[in-house]
């Protein structure tokens, strides 16, 4: 998807250049490729959420969390908790204490399960 978006952007620049005759250039100054987390860790998180009776979904995150860098050297996964109105990475973000407790319990159970492997 990211490659397709980049191609679309390059085409849009080319079309604008052809239509207007104005010179433009697209320089990639930063690239952060997607990271696939460890399957066993992701499965442990899912199993912990299921065992606790919590709803969950597997999702792709484009955020540059520390886990992206940790995943280069250790098995890694991420746990997200629901935020009010779905707002995240913003000063208006709010996760209830209960949601944070649920997330912490998922983490605890996932770590204990992985430690038993």
Largest sheet: none
Number of helices: 4
H/E order of the elements?
HHHH
Span between N and C termini? Answer: 35 Å
Helix content: 40-55%
Strand content: under 5%
Backbone structural class: mainly alpha
Kindly report the average pLDDT value. Answer: 92
Query: Overall 3D geometry?
Result: elongated
Radius of gyration: 20 Å
Number of separate strands: 0
Runs with pLDDT <50, length 5+?
none
Q: How does the SSE layout of this entry go?
A:
Elements: H1 2-20, H2 39-51, H3 66-70, H4 97-115
Keywords:
48% helix; mainly alpha; single chain; 4 helices; 117 residues
Word description of this protein:
The protein is mainly alpha-helical. It is built from four helices and no strands. The protein has helices at 2-20, 39-51, 66-70, 97-115. Helix 2 (39-51) crosses helix 4. The radius of gyration is 20 Å and the shape is elongated. The two termini are 35 Å apart.
Task: Give a short synopsis of this structure.
By secondary structure, this protein is an all-alpha fold. It has helices spanning 2-20, 39-51, 66-70, 97-115.
């Amino acid at each position: 998807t990211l490659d397709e978006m980049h191609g679309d952007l390059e085409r849009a620049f080319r079309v604008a250049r052809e239509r207007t005759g104005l010179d433009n250039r697209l320089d990639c100054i930063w690239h952060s490729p997607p990271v696939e987390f460890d399957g066993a860790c992701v499965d442990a998180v899912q199993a912990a959420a299921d065992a606790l009776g919590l709803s969950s979904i597997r999702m792709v995150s484009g955020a540059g969390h520390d886990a992206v860098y940790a995943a280069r050297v250790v098995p890694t996964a991420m746990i997200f908790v629901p935020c009010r109105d779905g707002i995240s990475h913003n000063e208006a973000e709010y996760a209830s204490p209960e949601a944070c407790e649920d997330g912490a319990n998922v983490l605890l159970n996932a770590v204990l399960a992985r430690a038993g492997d």
